[in-house]
């Protein structure tokens, strides 16, 4: 089901001060997408999710789920959370420790007054789906963190919602389990026709799971796009910087030549991604460290040639992370271990125009 949000505003009052958590958010979440709300702490992600669920009341605006208005100030509509047909998975799992796995998953169906037989069938089917068959009688606390998270997922899915919402569901797991559970989640949800709205401040999670990512800042949505679009071809400096490591610097547009925008920056004159910017305008140049190739010798003929000196090199497994002085800037770069260079060396670098992003500040 599609979710459509218009002009959503929400304030909190904290210690006598008004905090604007959502500042006129307009957003369309397409049906059956895995859609992530990503942003730094306090940008309003959780508030937006809780407004969709109905756990928080907005001040202004409208929320539609599958075409039905579930909240509108102007129309005086406020559908209660349990009538919105949603499933929700929280950061803290929120599974009940004194109950068995079966009872945890059965609970939402019992509340709806379904018959015992129907409940047994639906719970069995859902537990099979999340690969917890045979755990029905186990106390929910005698499970690993990953299994507890699967119980929470089962409980959110058992009522066959058309939309499922996640609030940082993996943040209590250690790094390895987080990665495993992330992969499971992707494969479980990929098998369903369901719209997933996922809140996280973890960029890797957002990149790995999402069909689309909305990057938020201070109660606004800054940019929406596929993981690839946001990583390789962002429009805003804040987004490019938040989603990955970035060398950022001011630049001025000189001209447009053969499908490239040529800029002048602290690195010299570079051919960049084509952008519809007039000559003379100010922009932000962004180069990700992995696209700065240290070559020492043969350079990519299509790339922008640069010269620099290695300030520092740190082995981080797989590659060296290096700081390289180029022009009047110090750039982060990655150097393959088989490139024979050392700290202090002067090196040739090259960066393809397609990887010189031009952003708005
Ligand atoms: P995090 O990643 O830290 O959970 P978030 O992006 O989800 O952050 P929100 O929790 O939505 O952000 O909070 C948005 C703003 O509203 C923040 O400034 C926060 O301090 C404030 N806020 C959230 N909940 C309340 C509340 N119940 N009372 C007062 N202020 C609140």
Automatic annotation (TrEMBL):
InterPro entries recorded: AAA+_ATPase, ABC_transporter-like_ATP-bd, ABC_transporter-like_CS, ABC_transpr_MalK/UgpC-like, Transp-assoc_OB_typ2
Q: Which GO terms describe its molecular function?
A: ATP binding
User: Which Pfam families did the record assign?
Assistant: ABC_tran, TOBE_2
Q: Does Cytoplasm appear among the keywords?
A: no
Domain ABC transporter, by residue range, is 3-243
Question: What's the domain of life for this entry?
Answer: Bacteria
Transcription: present as a keyword of the record? no
> Coiled coil where?
none
**Sorted UniProt keywords:** ATP-binding, Cell membrane, Membrane, Nucleotide-binding
Name used for this protein in its record: ABC transporter ATP-binding protein
Q: Which organism is it from?
A: Candidimonas humi
């Amino acid at each position: 089901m599609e979710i459509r949000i218009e002009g959503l505003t929400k304030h909190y009052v904290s210690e006598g001060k008004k905090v604007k958590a959502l500042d006129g958010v307009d957003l369309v979440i397409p049906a059956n997408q895995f859609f992530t709300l990503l942003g730094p702490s306090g940008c309003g992600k959780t508030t937006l999710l809780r407004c969709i669920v109905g756990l928080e009341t907005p001040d202004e605006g409208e929320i539609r789920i599958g075409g039905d208005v579930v909240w509108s100030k102007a129309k005086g509509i406020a559908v209660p959370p349990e009538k919105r047909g949603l499933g929700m998975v929280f950061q803290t799992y929120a599974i009940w420790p004194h109950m068995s796995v079966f009872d945890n998953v059965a609970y939402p169906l019992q509340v709806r007054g379904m018959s015992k037989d129907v409940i047994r069938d639906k719970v069995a089917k859902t537990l099979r789906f999340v690969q917890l068959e045979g755990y029905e009688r186990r106390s929910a606390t005698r499970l690993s963190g990953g299994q507890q998270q699967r119980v929470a997922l089962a409980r959110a899915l058992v009522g066959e919602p058309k939309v499922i919402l996640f609030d940082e569901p993996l943040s209590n797991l250690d790094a390895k389990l987080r990665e495993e559970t992330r992969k499971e989640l992707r494969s479980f949800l990929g098998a369903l026709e369901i719209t997933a709205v996922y809140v996280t401040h973890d960029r890797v999670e957002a990149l790995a799971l999402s069909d689309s990512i909305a990057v938020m800042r201070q109660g606004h949505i800054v940019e929406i796009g596929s993981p690839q679009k946001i990583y390789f071809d962002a429009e805003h400096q804040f987004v490019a910087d938040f989603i990955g490591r970035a060398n950022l610097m001011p630049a001025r547009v000189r001209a447009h030549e053969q499908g490239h925008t040529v800029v002048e920056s602290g690195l010299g004159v570079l051919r960049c991604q084509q952008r519809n910017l007039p000559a003379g305008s100010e922009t932000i140049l962004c180069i990700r460290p992995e696209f700065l190739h240290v070559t020492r010798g043969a350079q990519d003929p299509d790339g922008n040639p640069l010269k620099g000196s290695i300030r520092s090199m740190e082995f981080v497994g797989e590659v060296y992370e290096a700081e390289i002085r180029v022009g009047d800037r110090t750039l982060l770069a990655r150097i393959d271990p088989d490139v024979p260079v050392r700290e202090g060396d002067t090196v040739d670098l090259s960066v393809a125009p397609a990887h010189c992003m031009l952003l708005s500040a």
